[in-house]
């Protein structure tokens, strides 16, 4: 939801639409790579609250493991939730994250998943498990290899983002 307003630009007053700051918006980066996608979110959404989820993927089994959960017990009524993770490969991590979010009283239609790159296995899992969920991604790459990496993909998004 938006509200109308005016801002002073260097050249004069401009009429603008702002995202309504009275509406509760939460951004949930899946650590650590998700931090890159929320780095400047507060400049666009100044009233957001950021909650962190730490989920790692076992290199052998590709199963997610939750090591940090800083979600509230319950999100405020009507909250809009952005779950951000640069890579949606097998879907295990994002499904685990969404299950935790849903335990906090959020409906699928209130959640948006944002990624840079996604692959069909993750999108299929999301479609099967979260009817009405919206997923926004920069590109859909064709496949995932036997190590659970998107091909062609970017490699390990956290390593690439933080130079490790």
How would you characterize this protein structure?
With 164 residues, the protein is of the alpha/beta class. It has a single domain (27-162), classed as Rossmann fold (3-Layer(aba) Sandwich). The chain contains five helices and twelve strands. It has helices at 35-38, 41-44, 92-102, 120-129, 157-162; strands at residues 2-9, 12-19, 25-31, 49-50, 53-57, 64-69, 80-84, 87-88, 111-118, 134-140, 143-144, 150-151. The strands form three sheets. Strands 3, 4, 5, 6, 7, 8, 9 and 10 form an eight-stranded mixed sheet that branches. A hairpin with a 6-residue loop joins strand 5 and strand 6 (64-69). The longest helix is centred in the middle third of the chain and has 11 residues, at 92-102. The radius of gyration is 17 Å and the shape is globular. The mean pLDDT is 89. Residues 2-164 form the Phosphoribosyltransferase domain. Pathway: Pyrimidine metabolism; UMP biosynthesis via salvage pathway; UMP from uracil: step 1/1. Belongs to the UPRTase family. This is uracil phosphoribosyltransferase.
Summarize this, please?
It is an enzyme of class 2 (transferase). Belongs to the UPRTase family. This protein is an alpha/beta fold and about 160 residues long.
> Order of helices and strands, N to C?
EEEHHEEEEEHEHEEEH
Mean pLDDT: 89
CATH architecture: 3-Layer(aba) Sandwich
- Which structural class best describes the helix and strand composition? alpha/beta
The number of domains is: 1
CATH class: Alpha Beta
Low-confidence stretches: none
GO cellular component, one term: cytoplasm
Family: Belongs to the UPRTase family.
EC number: 2.4.2.9
Pathway: Pyrimidine metabolism; UMP biosynthesis via salvage pathway; UMP from uracil: step 1/1
